[in-house]
Amino acid sequence: MTDDTNKTGSDAKQAETAYEETAADAVADENSAPVEETPDPVEVLKAENNDLRDKFLRLAAEMDNLRRRTERDVKDAKAYSVAGFARDMLAVSDNLRRALEAIPAELKANAEAGISGLIEGVEMTERSMLSTMERHGVRKIDAEGEKFDPNFHQAMFEIPNPAVPNNTVVQVVQAGFTIGERVLRPAMVGVAKGGPKAEAPAAAEPGTGSLNEKDA
Question: Which of 35, 172, 177, 194 is the most buried (most CB within 10 A)?
């Protein structure tokens, strides 16, 4: 009986010791486990604020680009909306010019009052048409005497002329016109061949220079 009692007490003590060791291990594991830190609310708000600020700046840049594109499109629409009509009117202006050039100089000088009035009327009509088109941004290209520029001139033939620099426009077959900053119709010209080499034009100051130099 005594032996059984001692055995039972020993078993209980061993069980108690094992329990204590298990509890200690559990506490140690709990202490060694990584502790999740609670995010700082201030830092969270700062990150959200930076994100919203970046989105706002991108949106503002996109809206500014859209505004500029819209303004440019409206400006182009105003400037070039009459391009097709103006191009058709150039044919009428060409016919008036051909009619005037077909009249012999002798006839102009000795014309009767009626014929003289008719010629003057045609000349006034041509000038009025050109003036009206100019008010709408259509301007004649002054080509004769200028250096040939493929952006504004269309060469039809070459004329041997050693008295002027090579590639100088010496004859205008058909006048050219611009509308705004664009070429509505290039001038059809004859250029000099065989003359001295043209000197390079002097650099123009900002905001100065011919239309050809600006758009070339």
Answer: 177
